[in-house]
Specification:
Blueprint (H helix, E strand, L loop, with lengths): L2 H13 L23 E6 L3 E8 L4 E7 L2 E7 L1 E7 L2 E7 L5 E3 L2 E8 L5 E8 L18
Antiparallel strand pairs: 1-2, 2-9, 3-8, 4-7, 4-9, 5-6, 5-8
């Protein structure tokens, strides 16, 4: 085996355990930002989980996953969304809603000057997020 091959193999062994998948990415209610949990559970039964998430300007909803869910913005503004498709700027509009398929991981940062607030209804009766081959940037270290 050539030295480069051994080095590459060694790096693969060191990096592989840190790749994030749906199994080791926390759910939206579990993550914290600067010691605070931005989401609170409002209701839960065997079929759904309803939560309200609030993000003042500059805050982040760090890397987390969701099963299939409906997201309803209560207040809007500007945000940066990062997921396995890349990083993009989004405009959140109050009153719009999105029926979102399972999300293996994503991260949201409030880049505007208003507080973003969402009502989320997670569908426990549908299959959870598929395993992702890409890593959360903050978990891939």
């Amino acid at each position: 085996m050539r030295p480069f091959s051994v080095l590459f193999l060694g790096m693969t062994v060191l990096v592989a355990p840190f790749t994030a998948t749906a199994e080791n990415v926390p759910d939206a209610l579990s993550v914290e930002w600067q010691g605070q949990k931005p989401c609170e559970k409002l209701f839960e039964d065997a079929n759904i989980l309803i939560s309200r998430c609030s993000f003042p300007p500059g805050t982040m909803h760090v890397c987390h996953s969701h099963p299939s869910y409906i997201s309803y913005p209560l207040s809007g503004g500007k945000a940066q969304l990062q997921d396995e498709k890349g990083t993009r700027q989004v405009e959140v509009r109050a009153g719009n809603y999105a029926d979102v398929p399972p999300v293996p991981w994503h991260e949201l940062t409030n880049t505007g000057d208003t507080t973003l607030q969402f009502l989320n209804i997670e569908k426990k009766y549908q299959a959870g997020p598929p395993a992702s081959q890409t890593a959360c940037p903050s978990r891939a270290r």
